[in-house]
Amino acid sequence: MRLLTFWMAHRAELASMVERHLFLVLWSTLVATAIGLPAGVIAAHRPRVGRPLLAAANIAQTIPSLALLGFLLPLPFIGGIGPRIAIVALILYALLPIVRSTAAGLKSIDPAVIDAGVAMGMTPRQLLWLVELPLALPSIVAGIRIATIVGIGTATIAAAIGAGGLGEYIFRGLSMVDSTVILAGAIPAAVLALVADGILTWLEKRLSPGRKRLSRAAPITAAAAALLLALASAGVGSATRDTIVIGSKNFTEQVVLGELLAQALERHGVRVTRRLNLGGSFICDRAIRSGDIDAYVEYTGTALAAILKQPIVKEPDAAFNAVRDAYGRAGLSVLAPLGFNNTFAIVVRRADADALGLKTIEDLRRVDAQWRPGFGYEFAERTDGYAGLASAYGLRFTAPPRVMDLDLVYRALATRQVDVIAGDATSGLIKALDLAMLQDNREYFPPYYAVPIVRSAVLLAHPEVREALAQLAGRISETDMRAMNAAVDVDHRDVAATVREFLSRGR
Amino acid sequence: MPSPTTDRRAKQDAAADAPVVSFISVRFSYGPRLVLDDLQLAVNAGESVALVGRSGIGKTTLLKLINRLLVPQSGSVVVEGRDTREWDPIALRRRTGYVLQEIGLFPHLTIEENVALVPRLEGWPEERKRARAHELLELVGLPAAQFAARWPRELSGGQRQRVGVARALAVDPPILLMDEPFGALDAITRQELRSEFQRIRATLRQTIIFVTHDMDEAFALGDRVGTLEGGRLSFASCGS
């Protein structure tokens, strides 16, 4: 029921996500067919070329999809966030089933039929087009069917690098720990896969030799229809570039802040494209440097430690200046802080804190032998993360830390799967799940003031962008941020509505 | 593809120097296994030659040398006055109808389309193709009205054999190669097809070289019967 309400409330968005999803899958399958079919013919006719070809397709298939996207991200021409790289990855996945089924279809043809064709005086080309391909067609279509279904599933991952599609709901749902939102993306994706399976299975059966034939035009019509659909959705896919593209990382607060920038701009009549939920800091940084996005919100401490790899600066203004100078050299402008400091918070269950009298991070030394820590991926790696924390406080956890998605750590703590976590000071879940923050009494963590980062070229070309974003300076207190995060994470409120309410409240 | 003039010349040559197909000291082996050794054969226009011998002795190989599916290691095979090595293989194969032992009908084409395949390759207009296919189906005893639109898998073995023969005859090739055309059939169908064959021969007067393992059939249908053994052919002449 909640699901239906969600779909009704988001039907325009849902339609555009389905369209984008189809765009990704159709294009990648079409291109993979265009490459894979000839490759399959070569593989069948020349086993010496074919074997390495199949091996290469096999290897591409075994790379986990997120890893493949990661490899492709920094490459010139195909890299960068957005649909292009997702299509390249989907093509790589679609190749194997198409090449393999084309080759298998050709090899399974009765040799007597081939002999007859040769003896009738067919040229190799005539043999291929009049005999081999028509007879291999059901097998080829089976390969395309598998490629399409795999593509529909894999395309959901593409949301992680800003390609859009139904994966956006899945990732959004994961980050909000809201199964309704996950299902809102997963169910349409499953339905798409079933429909594609049904259509292509039907086609496959109709094409088997000796069946009452589809008119000769039918496969051509089908291909043309697919191409047209792909072209039509391409129109939707390529966002017109006179809009400002706002990005965000993939956790609740970031999505809220991205939406906040977007709505602030829209209130000033600026057209905005949202590319929210873009994986971690690294991906957002790549995206803004390559111009794939125009603005996102970063945190000063994160910028210094994780992105610029500069020494940690504890004094807030000095940190801000260091960040501003470094970004300025890269053609990026750091605007005035939004107000709050989202520092890392070392969090335990309130019951434990009360029972054991834990108040500061230092107090953890009393329990570190038995307790198991849990972190997000970034905290495990960063210079301002786990290793530094452990040495600054002399902590020696005997159990290795469990590393998981940042949004999951709070629930993992509340359900006693881990005992101490590194979360965000502004998370709405700390209060909601009855958790307690420990004081950073040795001032290990640098300040993490939220600052909008905008491409300088955009600020020059669009003074209204600067004007709109300047009004957000100092506007959001820690309490405000925590309230908005809680509205989304705890009360499952809509992000856009939450932000709209906040902006309407006025000063 | 030969130009019309070379095509005509080839026909004239064939008419002038009697043998349409001749094997001159042909030697052929599959790797170390010698199949044909110093083989001699001359087949005259309009003649029907039956080839008999144990299975695996090289009968099919001999047929395949004629339409250049295979090329001899030494010696030469001359068709219509020209060495097969000098023939464009495509043009040669379209002048030599071939009935395969396994028949090899195209499962994705109807009976009519199977028969009209070589005319299609030759670019005949639709009407002529259709008329020819129907004519041939009648000739092999498969009424077009009943069979033209059916699929190979809907036919019995004997009916498929007939389609195979009709397909080989489609562009009226001067030479017809048949590899056990009546093999794997029951006795009655066999008898039926044999008399069919004699009737067709009387109508078309092609040069025919056919392979069989049935001596009765060989003597009934061949003007001459050649026995293949030890890589060579020997003839027992007979009048049919």
In short:
Chain A is an alpha/beta fold and 507 residues long.
Explain what this protein looks like in three dimensions:
The complex is a heterodimer of chains A (507) and B (240). Chain A is α/β, with parallel strands linked by helices and 507 residues long. Chain A has helices spanning 2-9, 11-45, 47-62, 65-72, 83-107, 111-119, 124-154, 167-176, 179-206, 217-237, 252-267, 281-289, 300-307, 316-329, 350-356, 377-381, 386-393, 409-414, 429-432, 456-461, 463-470, 478-489, 495-504; strands at residues 244-247, 272-275, 295-299, 332-334, 344-349, 373-375, 402-403, 420-424, 435-438, 450-455. A 5-stranded mixed β-sheet of chain A has the order 7-6-8-5-9. In chain A, helix 3 (47-62) packs across helix 5 and helix 13 packs across helix 14. The longest helix of chain A is centred in the first third of the chain and has 35 residues, at 11-45. Residues 235-240 of chain A have low confidence and may be disordered. By secondary structure, chain B is of the alpha/beta class. Chain B has 10 helices and 10 strands. Chain B has helices at 4-16, 59-66, 89-95, 111-115, 117-121, 126-139, 144-147, 157-168, 187-204, 215-221, and strands at 19-30, 33-44, 48-52, 74-79, 82-83, 96-99, 175-179, 207-211, 224-229, 232-237. In chain B, the strands form 2 sheets. A 6-stranded mixed β-sheet of chain B has the order 6-7-8-3-9-10, sandwiched between helices. A 4-stranded antiparallel β-sheet of chain B has the order 2-1-4-5. In chain B, a hairpin with a 2-residue loop joins strand 1 and strand 2 (33-44). The radius of gyration of chain B is 18 Å and the shape is globular. Chain B starts with a helix and ends with a strand. Residues 1-6 and 8-14 of chain B have low confidence and may be disordered.
